[in-house]
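Marked as duplicate of an earlier ticket. Keeping the data here for the record.
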Amino acid sequence: MAESIRVALGSGDRYRDGWCNVDKFAKRADVRADIREVAFVENYVDEIECIHTIEHVEREAGAVLIERCFQWLKPGGTLVIETPDAVKCLKLATRKQPNRRWELMGVHGMWGGRSGPPELKERWRQWLLAWLDRGMSADAVPPDEFQQPGHAHLYLWNARELKLEMEAAGFVATIEKPQRHGGRTMRDCRVVGRKP
């Protein structure tokens, strides 16, 4: 029996043995490419995971990526997408808890995380807290030091919207409980599409 072809799009620093890890910025990847530009043969792949990746591209690019995944997958193949859920992030960011942990989790989902030295992470945390205190103004632009490739969130989906987009591409899609990236069920969504 042939080995399954499994692709991790936007694998980041979560390298997965037995998978084709695709990432433009990761320290380790099997294919170093932008997820908007990578290509596979039609009806070739058994499984694709896009874990905390699709939010790093524009909405239109995300829709095209879903369509391309459908083409790459064999019949019966699956596409798994986990991403911050726009609706959940907004609810968390506006719930006004005394310790602010939940608010920060929501705004991290909206804006993205920042890697690097602890002092950079702390400056990012302080910028997010100040943004919350300003009432989450729509005209906010993070300072240049926080504009790291692969970290900024360019478009946030919600579970229902993602399911509809996957169905429009031809998938039979279901919303499931998030399993990866720390199992952040209070903030994230997971949609699984199967190619008929």
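See parent ticket for discussion. The first helix runs from residue 59 to 72.
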